[in-house]
Predict the structure.
Amino acid sequence: MELELQLIFKAIGFFSLIAIGIPSNVIILTVFTHVRITEKKLLPSNIILTMLAMVNLLVIFSKGFPQAIHSIGIRNILNDFECKVISFTYRICRGMTICVTCFLSCNQCIILAPPTKAWLYLKQKVPTNIASIIIFLWCINAAIYPSCFLHVRAKANYTTSKYTLHLEFCNHDFMTFASYVANGIAIALRDFFFVGTMTLASCYIVFMLYRHGKRVQGIRSSDKNNGKTVEYKASRAVVLLVTIYVTLFGIDCCIWIYTVTVSRVSPVISDARVFFGTLYTALSPIVIIKTNKKIKTVLLCSTKKRLLQSTDLSITESSE
């Protein structure tokens, strides 16, 4: 009975994540693709958000789906090659969510920074090198996970070492203690560096927003809304995204610390860690859709167009 309840809650959690995460991230990708085609350009921040939506989708497909399928009793459906691909995709894209969110916060930090010599250099260089920076981030994450193609295998009747991660359909056997520790150190260094950087950037953004708020206090109430510029609203959205990520990362770390201090980890704890580790892929697109002016404008125009078409069709049918 306890196992059944665990699987029910697991299924509800991951199928909800899929139901929310896929449509919302697809909306972001569709809108920005439409803008790129029709307007021939995208703002640097919107390019970064497009990349975030893409890696969010890949995380959902490579981790959310396997967890959801596993929760309804489907077992052992992947072969060795499929396990390697899915494991590599999840790990590299999970790393990219950290790096891209960090890049987003740093980019907004640069936008808000005063026009001093050092900041001017970044203001000029970063917008023109968005693609190169994103490719560099992909390379960093790809370099961390060669073990996925070396040591990941589908579950079967074979002996594994004690340095093995037992996933839903696959085993990631590091074989040796040195390999296991090296992989853990590389991931930890990456995570804490980028999470620390995005936290510092967000603190600077909050400081700049505070200064902005102090400046507009003396403005007449009728002009206060004008004082809240597009950059101001975008900055608040970035701070919210970083806050969500850092909170979920903190929960993930707390659960991980607990798992290394006990001799036997309950499957519920492991599933909870995976859920909180992937929850950002469903929460972040909601924040982006709610706060991004370009997305709201395109969606509003699309809605009005459909309403007009529906009205014209009704009038045509009535006249006939």
Observations:
- Residues 34 and 40 are 9 Å apart (CA to CA).
- Strands lie at 152-154, 164-166, 170-173.
